[in-house]
Amino acid sequence: RFDATDAPLTHFRPREVGTSVERLRELGYERDCEGKPLERDDQLVELKVQDIILSNTCAEYLLRASKFVDELLQKFYGLKPYYNASWPADLAGHLVIGLAPHTSVGIVGRVIGFTDANVGYAHPFFHSAKRRDADGDEDAVILLLDALLNFSRRFLPSRRGGMMDAPLILNTRIDPSEIDKEAHNMDVMERYPLEFYEATLHYASPSELAQLMETVERRLGSEAQYAGLKFSFDTGNIAAGPHTSRYKTLETMEQKTSAQLGLAKKIRAVDERDVAERLIEHHFIPDLKGNMRAFASQQFRCTGCNSKYRRVPLRGQCTRCGGKLILTVTRGGVEKYLQIAMQIAHDYESSNYTEQRLKLVQRDIKSIFESDAHRQLSLADFL
Q1: How far is the C-alpha of 23 from the C-alpha of 92, rounded, in Å?
Q2: What are phi and psi of 372, to 5 degrees?
Q3: Is there a contact between 364 and 293 (Cβ–Cβ < 8 Å)?
Q4: Could you tell me if 53 and 12 are in contact, meaning their C-beta atoms sit under 8 angstroms apart?
């Protein structure tokens, strides 16, 4: 499986995806979005709902996976190779599975092209069918035959959550009426009417403009729900922007948070204090608490034979080889974000509630790692 950041796409040009016009016609793209026969690589084509465009990095990875599957078919099953792919372009037309983390339902898709951008381009319906909003999340792509041959429920752990991140069920057809409502709210207009811009002057509610704007919701239940979607702004190349997210190019968490909050400061429409508050409340504090839980329920590992124990044996060493047992979750892993969170709370004047929550977490971490056994007490400590 290959993880890539979700990116929505409804239209493309053949030259942007590295697939020839002839091959696209074989895959069902016979006409462009205006209904004209597809003859040139600069014509604009509407992306089919379950077709996806992979990054070149992902294509190279899946190419190696396809060679493994072909070798498995030959040497283990005694069958002919299926993919016979020599180049990434040979994967065009093959089926894959899109799978989001913490879910158990995979969505079948078809590869139709490749891009220099390190993202997974797909129709908004495809991302929504995976229960994703395409707001920076990463999802997995798996060759369909690889999953069918090499996946089994017997491989899954029996512990809680063991059934997640596995394609237990395959959805072979996307029904737009069954996907998340976020995709239903997507407008499909080529240009906005003047009344829309006038309504923005008095901050009109979106519900007031429901009859004025055409959205996917109004097309549900008809053939128009699958095709004929319009967009308002074109681009010269779908891969013209940054090829890799800054979240991946920046190495440390300090750099990442500094870049995010620095950008928030520069944007007039963004309240940087609110961004900092949300970052602490929804990222750092849950992570710190989760790390404490992991520390309290961790296993112990033998440095000699790598055996793992839920509890330390009474003899205090490995029962297999007599080796030394060590923790699998360290103190540094538990409190790695604490100082960053405390500094952000101070610099951006977070609310008293958030600061108190951080102090409570800090006290809990201190109580775990610092012993009170040798502390000298005075009478005042008992008052």
Answers
A1: 8
A2: -100, 5
A3: no
A4: yes
Q: How big is the chain, counted in residues? A: 383
Chain centroid to CA 202: 36
Do residues 338 and 361 lie in contact, with contact meaning Cβ atoms separated by under 8 Å? yes
Angle, nearest 10°, between helix axes 352-369 and 285-296? 20
Percent of the chain clearing pLDDT 70 (strictly above): 97
From the CB of residue 196, how many other CB atoms can be counted at a distance below 10 Å? Answer: 15
Return the biggest CA–CA distance within the chain.
Answer: 91
| Structure letter (DSSP) for residue 379 | G
CB 106 within 8 A of CB 98: yes
Give the E-state strand segments of the chain in sequence order.
Answer: 2-8, 11-12, 45-46, 51-55, 95-99, 105-115, 119-122, 138-143, 169-171, 300-302, 308-309, 325-327
Q: For the chain, first and last CA: distance in Å?
A: 60
Is the dihedral angle over the CA atoms 184, 189, 190, 192 positive or is it negative? negative
80, 207 contact by CB (below 8 A):
no
pLDDT at 243 over 60: yes
Distance, in Å, from the CA atom of 106 to the CA atom of 181, rounded to the nearest integer, reads 19
Tell me how crowded residue 215 is: count the other CB atoms within 10 A of its CB: 16
Residue 266, amino acid: K
Domains along the sequence of the chain with CATH = 2-225 (2.40.40.20), 253-369 (no CATH)
Give yes or no for a contact between 304 and 326, defined as CB atoms under 8 angstroms apart. no
Task: Give the model confidence (pLDDT) of 255-313 as tens digits.
Answer: 999 999 999 999 999 999 999 999 999 999 999 998 898 888 888 999 989 998 988 88
Tokens 């610092």 -> residue = 370
Going by pLDDT thresholds of 50, 70 and 90, the confidence category of residue 106 is very high
User: Which residue is listed with tokens 């951080």?
Assistant: 358
Distance CA 256, CA 252 (A): 6
